[in-house]
Write a structure and sequence with these properties.
Layout (H helix, E strand, L loop, with lengths): L2 H16 L8 H9 L6 H21 L5 E6 L2 H15 L5 E5 L1 H7 L16 H33 L3 H12 L8 E4 L7 H14 L3 E5 L15 E2 L2 H17 L6 E6 L6 E2 L11 H6 L4 E4 L11 E3 L2 E5 L7 E2 L5 H14 L4 E4 L6 H12 L7 E4 L6 H15 L21 H11 L1 H8 L2 E6 L2 H17 L5 H15 L6 H4 L2 H12 L18
Parallel strand pairs: 1-2, 1-14, 2-3, 3-4, 4-6, 5-7, 6-12, 13-14
Antiparallel strand pairs: 7-11, 8-10, 9-10
Helix pairs in contact: 1-2, 4-6, 6-7, 6-8, 8-9, 11-12, 12-15, 13-14, 16-17
Pfam families: ICL
Keywords: Lyase
InterPro entries: ICL/PEPM, Isocitrate_lyase, Pyrv/PenolPyrv_kinase-like_dom, Pyrv_kinase-like_dom_sf
């Protein structure tokens, strides 16, 4: 017996116990409302989605072709429409997640207005967006199920038993729009206690996976900006522990921690690591510092000195009181960061790179997997990369290495539209198309995401409409570019009243008031023009 049928029978039994005072209660309506409200709390969502992620991680370990994907979203409606589109075109949400980008929270959700990605926005806006996203995803479930219930009632009224059976099976096997969210906690917004408190709020809102980076929280920079400053491993481990304690306190024992390292592009550290014995973790961190060997006679007041193998070393300290690492040590530091994080409670890794290059990523993952064989990545397919130029240059280098004639190309100007129809451009586009598949097979990438794609798509689509509507096209710009496409491509928002919940409200009115219900969806509702 299905959950739907069980709920009908249990409510029918309860109704009989209550006597005539419940005569107006229809058990099937209750079952429908329960189906439309499957998840009662954020913690239920966090547990449900954590189970999904753990299953997906195990499946990836067995077969690297079954990687997962997400797009970053900045509003509940955008996340909802993304999942509706996935279900419409791909028929299943399997292996598709949502990504909550701290960059987009800063740029689009702060009460201060647009901010750079430097942890200056309100920390409460992060769990608020998680809650908002799941509110919209649950509403998508309610709407889609409501349409099925309406069709079921119509089939029953028509006496079409075959249709009734088919629609009932769709209700019984309904796939929710609720999927895992990988949520960005930046560098933790403060000390480990602050990290723990914020992580709890995020988990209570529904987050099953929290991504945290090894930058200094009060000097945090976007991963694709200069001036990044990392912290010693012990500092980062404390925050990993804080997030794990938050998961465990709330009963999400299999919550997922994504440990991000920014060391590839971070040349600075705020402080020296504490070292107790030669070769320990603190000593390994300090070994990457740019230092000068000095004698005791060369010491100045205020100098900070390290002693290694009997030598005195003075780390190079900047006017900002930050210390710099030796040039060219980024990849080696990333490898150490990743191994250390996995040994101290992280589940997945994130290596922030400066370009999308499978072999660069794979080179680091190969080193990590020598120590931890099942290490796997979340990778940022970032809009901060010029994908066209990067891959055309990779294609140029490949053709050159193969002995092809590349004299007709200017490697520094490969973004030029003049190259769009060339063999090189076609090769580059094919490498872009297969980047996720190739990266998952070769470089251990379990999850591919684009951090802020919907920031760009919102700007681009708005530009298209504004250009035409305020120009010579007038209303045709909207009709041709938006509404006609919505109708012909089956975009749910063409019936915007339905999308916002009007039909659900009408059905509830009928549940509550019967024939006396005043409904909005009658013959004069202009939404009827859309069929």
């Amino acid at each position: 017996m299905t959950t739907y049928q069980t709920d009908i029978e249990s409510i029918e039994a309860l109704k009989q116990q209550q006597g005539s005072s419940w005569d107006a209660i229809n058990p099937e309506y209750v079952a429908r409302m329960r189906a439309q409200n499957r998840f009662k709390t954020g913690l239920e969502i966090a547990q449900y989605t954590a189970d999904i992620m753990r299953r997906d991680m195990a499946e990836y370990d067995a077969d690297s072709s079954v990687y997962t994907q997400s797009l970053g979203v900045w509003h509940g409606f955008i996340g909802q429409q993304k999942l509706i589109s996935i279900k419409k075109h791909l028929k299943s949400t399997n292996k598709r997640y949502l990504y909550l980008s701290g960059w987009m929270v800063a740029a689009l959700r702060s009460e201060f207005g647009p901010l750079p990605d430097q942890s200056m926005h309100e920390k409460t806006s992060v769990p608020a967006l998680i809650e908002e996203l799941y509110t919209f995803l649950r509403q998508a479930d309610a709407r889609e199920l409501d349409l099925l219930f309406t069709r079921l009632d119509g089939a029953r009224a028509a006496g079409d038993d075959t249709a009734v059976e088919f629609i009932q099976s769709q209700i019984d096997t309904y796939e929710t729009h609720v999927v895992p969210i990988i949520a960005d906690i930046d560098a933790g917004f403060g000390n480990p206690e602050a990290t723990y408190l914020l992580a709890k709020k995020m988990i209570e809102a529904g987050a099953c996976a929290i991504q945290i980076e090894n930058q200094v929280s009060d000097e945090k920079q976007c991963g694709h900006q200069d001036g990044k400053v990392t912290v010693p491993h012990d500092d980062f481990i404390a925050k990993l522990n804080a997030v794990r304690y938050a998961f465990l306190e709330l009963g999400i024992d299999n919550g997922v921690i994504v440990a991000r390292t920014d060391s590839l592009g971070a040349g600075l550290t705020q402080k020296l690591a504490v070292s107790h014995t030669a070769g320990d973790l603190g000593d390994q961190y300090n070994a990457f510092l740019d230092v000068d060997a000095i004698d005791a006679d060369d010491l100045s007041d205020g100098d900070v000195i390290l002693r290694r193998e009997g030598r005195m070393l003075r780390p190079k300290r900047l006017a900002s009181n930050l210390y710099q690492f030796r040039s060219g040590t980024g990849e080696e530091r990333c490898v150490l960061d990743c191994i250390t994080s996995l040994r101290n409670g992280a589940d997945l890794l994130w290596i922030e790179t400066e370009k999308p290059h499978v072999e660069q990523i794979a080179g680091m993952v190969d080193e990590i997997r020598k120590v931890i064989p099942n290490a796997k990545l979340v990778y940022n397919n970032s809009p901060s990369f010029n994908w066209t130029l990067n891959f055309r240059q990779q294609a140029y280098d490949l053709l050159l290495a193969e002995g092809a004639d590349v004299s007709g190309y200017d490697r520094a100007d490969l973004m030029n539209v003049a190259y769009d129809d060339t063999e090189l451009a076609q090769l580059a586009d094919e490498k872009i198309r297969s980047f996720q598949k190739d990266g998952s097979a070769r470089a251990g990438i379990f999850h591919h995401l684009i951090t802020l794609p919907t920031y760009h798509t919102a700007a681009l689509s708005t530009d298209d409409l504004a250009k035409g509507y305020f120009g010579s096209e007038g209303m045709l710009a909207y009709v041709k570019g938006v509404q006609r496409r919505e109708i012909r491509e089956g975009i749910a928002t063409v019936k915007h009243q339905n999308m916002a919940g009007s039909d659900i409200g009408d059905n509830h009115k009928e549940y509550f008031a019967g024939d006396a219900a005043l409904k909005a969806g009658g013959k004069d509702n202009t939404m009827n023009q859309f069929g």
